[in-house]
Design a protein that fits this description.
single chain; mainly beta; Porin; 18-stranded antiparallel β-barrel; two-stranded antiparallel ribbon; 6% helix
């Protein structure tokens, strides 16, 4: 009897050592591995969840279907939208619904399908194109074929429509912060080894329309490139190298309007440890614009430290960057940096400005109030990198021409956000921002300072 008890106890220890916590819901839901649900419930470290029956539907050996979804309800209010250029006191309601099916027929063949609906009510001026509204469409729909797959090596060919996020998301991001995300149509080749990952792509951005099942590849734009990332274990760091090509048939800058054929090369060193996190990136751009040349550059930096033993685990950060502008609108060289398809919340949740022709300094202070609540406070200082260039929005559209203003300072933005995890499935946040306009915006009327408030609830299943 004693021998049996000891054997049972040893087996329970082995089972506990193999226990798997349920994964955290992330915007990249297509990368979540639900295969752990094939194990007996006793091998998991938590009680079965009602969603488990949808996350893992067995279809036979190495074959299963996962169904996931998201409901996001969000309000936004601005007292002086567009710095006073639009009607005041603009409040509106945003809704986003996502439903996904992930079918693994074998270990080497997979299809992923995601329907998305983005709705908006009450916004003065209607929905912003490609950002606020898309009644119903295929947000993603791709096929993965993996001719090589092992614990240390894998090679995957992906074809179809997908959301793409690369590196720091300063250049290519899903746009998860926006009500309507930015998909791409085309092909990707993904290779992974023990220390290297390589991601090659040839895609067109999907042209988002507000109707039903009307989205299609944008014939005016193309994006291609190769993104490499290497783990350097002795230094506890990572190194990224990348090349991206971009072609747009018609773009407008201060210098004028014309075809843009832009090449982007860059490098990045980054690490996220339990204590330190840092991220330093440099990007160079060259190519052709209209009948002239392109010569632009950008830098990004991030440095943070977590006081793990202190109460509330305070986490101060300093991040920002410099994104070149055009210093002479009358020469034959365009100097404005193009961020391509950046994170929608690159600068703020209010998406007042886009990351072009900017100098950004942003000290941030994060705290964990308890296991469920956290706060994020930051101060953002913004200048024009080139006083001969203007200010652009997140879509790269010029909103404030340089005019006769030689002022460099754009403004100061204070942001405060509180996040709360009610449960594994339900989370909420409340964000407040105040933008103090600087000399350049004041000299580009109306130039009003503004307040922005946004409550949000998100339910993942």
């Amino acid at each position: 009897m004693t021998t049996f008890a000891l054997a049972a106890f040893a087996a329970s220890l082995r089972l506990a050592a193999q226990a798997v916590n349920p994964p955290t819901y992330t915007p990249q839901v297509w990368d979540i591995d639900w295969s752990y649900l094939a194990e007996p419930a006793a091998a998991r470290s938590s009680e079965p969840d009602w969603t488990d029956r949808f996350h893992y539907i067995s279809l036979g050996k190495n074959s299963f279907l996962s169904v996931t979804g998201q409901i996001r309800e969000r309000g936004e209010y601005q007292d002086d939208p567009a710095f006073g250029a639009q009607p005041p006191d603009n409040g509106y309601f945003l809704q986003r619904y996502l439903v996904s099916s992930d079918l693994h027929l074998t270990e080497r063949f997979r299809t992923f399908l995601q329907f998305g609906s983005g709705l908006i009510k009450g916004r003065d001026g209607g929905p912003r194109p490609g950002i606020d509204k898309d009644k119903l469409d295929f947000n993603q729909g791709f096929v993965d074929i993996a001719p090589l797959k092992s614990p240390d090596h894998s090679f995957t060919v992906r074809a179809g429509r997908e959301l793409i996020s690369l590196g720091s998301t300063r250049l290519i991001a899903t746009g998860a912060g926006l009500n309507v995300e930015q998909p791409f149509d085309g092909f990707r080749l993904m290779l992974q080894t023990r220390n290297w990952t390589a991601d090659g792509l040839a895609v067109r951005p999907t042209e988002v329309k507000i109707g039903t099942f009307g989205n299609e590849p944008n014939p005016a734009e193309e994006l291609w490139g190769l993104y490499l990332s290497r783990v350097i274990p002795p230094l506890h760091t990572n190194m990224d190298l990348y090349y991206l090509g971009y072609d747009h048939k018609s773009v407008r800058y201060v210098q004028g309007k014309g075809r843009e054929q832009r090449e982007t090369i860059g490098g990045r060193i980054w690490s996220h440890t339990p204590t330190w996190d840092y991220d330093f990136e440099y990007t160079a751009q060259f190519g052709r614009f209209n009948t002239g040349n392109i010569s632009a550059w950008g830098t990004g930096y991030h440095l943070g430290y977590t006081f793990n033993r202190a109460r509330f685990a305070p986490h101060p950060e300093l991040d920002g960057g410099v994104l070149s502008g055009d210093h002479n609108a009358h020469d034959n060289t365009l100097g404005t940096f193009n961020p391509l398809f950046p994170n929608g919340n690159f600068l703020s949740q209010s998406i007042l400005l886009g990351p072009l022709d900017l100098i950004i300094v942003r000290p941030t202070f994060k705290t964990a109030l308890n296991r469920k609540a956290s706060t994020n406070t930051n101060l953002e200082l913004l200048w024009r990198q080139a006083t001969e260039d203007g200010v652009y929005n997140i879509a790269g559209i010029l909103t404030h021409a340089p005019g006769n203003s030689t002022a460099r300072f754009i403004g100061t933005q204070i942001q405060q956000e509180v996040d709360y995890a009610f449960s594994r499935h339900l989370s909420g946040s409340l964000a407040y921002e105040h933008f103090f306009t600087g000399e350049f915006l004041k000299q580009s009327p109306p130039g009003h300072s503004l307040n922005f408030i946004s409550p949000q609830l998100t339910y993942n299943f």
